[in-house]
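Sequence in, structure out. Go.
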Amino acid sequence: MRSSRSVDPRAYVYWHQKEQFQLEQDTSGYWTMFAVESGRFTYKIGREEGDAGFADLVVCPPHTAFHRRTLTPLTFHFVQFIWEIEPGEEEAKRWTGKITIADTERLASTYRYLRSMSRVGLHDPASGPMRHLLNDLLLSAELERSLQQDEAREGADPLMHQARLWLLAHAFEPFAMSELSAALGLSPVQLTRKFRAAYGHTPSAYVTELRISRACRLLEETTLTLEAIAQRCGYENGFYLSRVFRSRMGTVPSAYRKLHRV
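Output:
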């Protein structure tokens, strides 16, 4: 699922085979991320400490001391950013420290594009392509974390795994939630309770997330009208989509498109 929390990059530097850090401790007013291509370094952020290497993202929140020391020559992407929608305290904790990306093929591709743009001087973090690539790093982390949580939850309730697959298949077309509850032999109340216990939110909220994620992608990648996007996302008209979109994303679709078009 697409991340609803995009970032606004403020600084980007590609470092190749850096022998040591000029500062082994630093504090920034922005979120800071080291995305490692090769080599290793140790870090300490608050109470968390460890070492990181290829496929690791190390993220430090603003106004927090970031201790680091190279262990071997380090090649990495240095990024400073702010969240477009600032995460709450608990979510900020989940984004702090080391995040390991399992999909190294996708990660290597993102790194390759970042290197290429840096070499030809197209590394302005505010540019559309750079913004897209830097957001992709965090999107990869969020997707993998979400899938891992889903797998753990699905093992506890196979019926709700079936419900989630049904919702994925029908999310972008008009349907009544009672169709799903009847297919599973549950009452609508039982379905809502069991689904929330398995996934942490209601079936309706899950469908809304899927639809708004698709709407975001279509706004970014196409020139479709709002009415056409609404139809492709399972909403009856553009007015209703706009209302749900603003409630979920904090902005109207037209403003989102203008901000995110690459």
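Check: The chain has two domains: 7-148, 157-260. The chain has a mean pLDDT of 86.
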